Amino acid sequence: xxxxxxxxxxxxxxxxxxxxxxxxxxxxxxxxxxxxxxxxxxxxxxxxxxxxxxxxxxxxxxxxxxxxxxxxxxxxxxxxxxxxxxxxxxxxxxxxxxxxxxxxxxxxxxxxxxxxxxxxxxxxxxxxxxxxxxxxxxxxxxxxxxxxxxxxxxxxxxxxxxxxxxxxxxxxxxxxxxxxxxxxxxxxxxxxxxxxxxx
Length: 199
What we know:
This protein has 199 residues and is α+β, with helices and mostly antiparallel strands.
C-alpha cells in the first residue's frame, strides 16, 4: 500500500497531531533510510512548517499534544516527544508536565532522543567521526585502529564497539566505555555505527 494511503487509513484522514483535516501531507520522522508509513506521520499545513522550523512555534496550537502523545503509533509518539521537548526548553511549563507523564518503549525513546540531540548540535560545533559524520550523545561507534589505554593497562583493539557515547565540551573528544572502563577517545579514531536498523 502506498505510504499516503496507509497514513490516511491509519489517521482516518486527519492530522495525527492536531486532528485537523486541512492540506494533509507526509512528514518523515528522522532518521529515515527508506520511507515507509511506520517512520512517517500525516500532518496538516499548520503543524508541518512548525515541525520543520520554517514557521514560528505557536505554543497554544501544540496543546493538542496532550491527546496525540498517547497515540499507539510510535512515529506520532516520537514527534510529540520532540515537540514537547522544544516547547519545554522555550519555557512552557505545561509541556514539561506532559513529558513527565509520557511513557515510551526503549526503542521509541532512543528514536525520540536522537532527534532532540540533533536539534541541540545545531547551536554548537558538531562532533564528527573519522569520516566527518556527525556524532550525537547515545550513538554507537567502533575503533578504526588499536589504541593503548593509558592507565588502563590494556590495548583497545580495532573494531571494538563503544556504545552509548557521551559528548564532551571538546568536539574532538567523546567519552565511552571500553572493557568496562570509561575513557576519553579521540574522534579521529572512531567510526559511527547505525543507531538502529530499519525493520
